[in-house]
């Protein structure tokens, strides 16, 4: 007979095994126009994926504390699919470069 995992080991497993990878959210066609957004829950955390005025797709973790600003998370588009990575350990936000053409952030997800 196996015993169910306790809450502490479950949280540790979620943090190390699941949040450290890239996770499929939806197709890019789900947010076709500037200003469109999509609210999803990834492993119990609410995440908003939005298309900004420059046609870039961005993702934000919704904080639950009062007056908390949304925290940006890594977002990648690959083969017309949106992926997010909730792991913030190695994530350094870079200042966006100003360019006339819209840019697409692309990365290879672990699942690909």
Rg, Å, rounded: 16 Å
H/E series:
HEEEEEE
In total, the number of strands is 6
Q: What is the typical, i.e. mean, pLDDT?
A: 75
Overall geometry comes to: globular
The strands making up the biggest β-sheet line up spatially as 1-6-5-4-3-2
Largest sheet: 6 strands, antiparallel
- Pick out the low-confidence regions: 93-98
- Assess the beta-strand content as a share of residues: 25-35%
Q: What is the end-to-end distance?
A: 36 Å
Helix content: 10-25%
Count, helices:
1
Query: What is the subunit arrangement here?
Result: single chain
In words, what does this structure look like?
The protein has 112 residues and is mostly beta strands. It has one helix at 7-18, and strands at residues 23-27, 37-42, 45-51, 57-61, 71-78, 81-85. The longest helix has 12 residues, at 7-18. It is globular and about 50 Å long. Keywords: 2Fe-2S, Iron, Iron-sulfur, Metal-binding. Residues 95-112 have a biased composition (Polar residues). Residues 22-70 form the Rieske domain.
